[in-house]
Amino acid sequence: MKVRDISLLGHALLGLLQQHPSSGYDLRKIFALTPVGSFSDSPGAIYPALHRLEEGGFIRGRLEETSGLRRRKMFRLTPAGVAALKKWLAKPVHRDEVVRSMDELMLRFAFMDVVIGEAASIQFLNTLERELKLYVPTLREYLGSQRANLPISGRLALESGIRGYEAQLQWAKSARAAYEQAGKGGTS
Amino acid sequence: MKVRDISLLGHALLGLLQQHPSSGYDLRKIFALTPVGSFSDSPGAIYPALHRLEEGGFIRGRLEETSGLRRRKMFRLTPAGVAALKKWLAKPVHRDEVVRSMDELMLRFAFMDVVIGEAASIQFLNTLERELKLYVPTLREYLGSQRANLPISGRLALESGIRGYEAQLQWAKSARAAYEQAGKGGTS
DNA sequence: CGATACATGTAAGAAGTTACATGATTGT
DNA sequence: ACAATCATGTAACTTCTTACATGTATCG
After folding, report:
1. Most-buried pick from A105, A136, A143, B73 (CB within 10 A)?
2. What does the buried/exposed string (b/e) look like for A81-117 if buried means 16 or more CB atoms within 10 Å of the residue's CB?
3. Of A110, A118, A151, the CB nearest to B113
């Protein structure tokens, strides 16, 4: 049970297992059938990742005996797993992640409010918004300065990226509004 | 010089080398300083990738002697490299790529018109548009059916994904318009 | 009784990350 | 002289992909 880093897939598994204790097969189906990130549902990715998490002491699997079904190993988080999940979710949004791994940021957000609270989610949205407001203009500047040097498709591809970030920015605003709205009538 | 598959990074390098013959260091700087995909600029990724491409016969490096500078190995595409690049760019847009690797699709698009022509780019945009028009409603349906089961942040994260795809769809339309506009006055 | 879905795994290989290593050239 | 930048590389490690392997339960 030595200290191990947890991969992105590992963190996704922690997040899902926090929602429901599940078997490897359950998790594979989630990746195969629902739009949770873009993880492979191949057994060669998921079972080894679960074993690493278990070896690291973050989850614990036990064989289900209750029903007369096939043997299924149900995994659930240990306290160390909950702590690792919280640590991942609580990481401040860094500029670099906005540029290079928006996917991971959105995955974190998807698990966030349940695990570390709405206040953290709102804080996350604020930081994301701030970083996007800083980043988009630098992309626009680059596009402006290179307009003459780029082939049409290169320019358009860059446009596409910029529009994607702008959509994220709009989304962040509306998501924050949704929390404020819910906050008025919601529980706590 | 045996047959090798080319990784995404490898294809990106082929695309960039087709624009200008470059050294490994040049390419690293492109990844470090410009918004071309989200590739690492680490030497441990780029130099081995260049060596694999060279070993596969797709590029050819030669030491620069002309100027009194440090030794730089300048790489350029071989005919096999051009063929491999064209093959990658000409692949039809598959549904699965829209779902799991939009990044790669946009990278391909960025190199496309110069290497295989505007007609191919327009065709690409049409197919992309069609696939997005099919995919977005399935995401909306999923969101509708799961609305009650998802935590707020889960629902919002899914919203973010949907908005991203919608932005892509809008972009594809405007990009097509840009080609049609350019076509009227442009060369050929 | 054969096909399909359930359920878990391993082995080989490819490719990326991090960190280290080396050396030339330029600027101060 | 010394630091910074230019320029290329390797080694160890981690993780993912692809393909194979195994066996059970259910359905028609």
Report:
1. A105
2. beebbbebbeeebeeebbeeebebbbbbbbbbbbbbe
3. A151
Beta bridge partners of A156: none
Distance of CA A90 to the CA centre of its chain: 12
User: Across-strand partners of A59?
Assistant: A77
Interface membership of B27 toward A (CB under 8 Å): no
Please list every residue in chain A whose beta carbon sits closer than 8 Å to the beta carbon of residue B157: 106-107, 109-110
Nearest to B20 by CA among B59, B66, B70: B59
Q: How far apart are CA B89 and CA B52, in angstroms?
A: 20
What is the distance between the alpha carbons of residues B107 and B8, in angstroms, rounded to a whole number? 9
**pLDDT of res. B140:** 96
What pTM did the predictor assign? 0.92
Residue A62, SS3 per DSSP: strand
Pick the closest to residue B13 from B4, B41, B3, A101 (CA basis).
B41
Whether B128 and A77 have beta carbons less than 8 Å apart is answered as: no
Cα separations in angstroms, A132 against A105, A155, A160, A181: 13, 20, 15, 23
Q: How far is CA B56 from CA B45, B60, B81, B155, in A?
A: 17, 10, 9, 46
Q: What DSSP element (H or E) covers B61?
A: strand B59-63
Q: Which of B39, B160, B184 to mutate to test the interface with A (most CBs of A within 10 A)?
A: B160
* 188 residues of chain B, pLDDT tens digit each: 556 799 999 999 999 999 999 999 999 999 999 988 889 999 999 999 999 999 999 999 998 765 556 688 999 999 999 999 999 999 999 999 999 999 999 999 999 999 999 999 999 999 999 999 999 999 999 999 999 989 999 999 999 999 999 999 999 999 999 998 877 654 54
Q: How far is B146 from chain A (nearest CA, A)?
A: 11
Distance from CA of B168 to the nearest CA of A (A): 7
Dihedral of CA A50/A99/A158/B7: which sign?
A: negative
Q: b vs e for B149-173, b when ≥16 Cβ sit within 10 Å of the residue's Cβ?
A: ebbbbbbbbbbbbbbbbebbbebbe
Per the CB < 8 Å rule, is B109 touching A161?
Answer: no
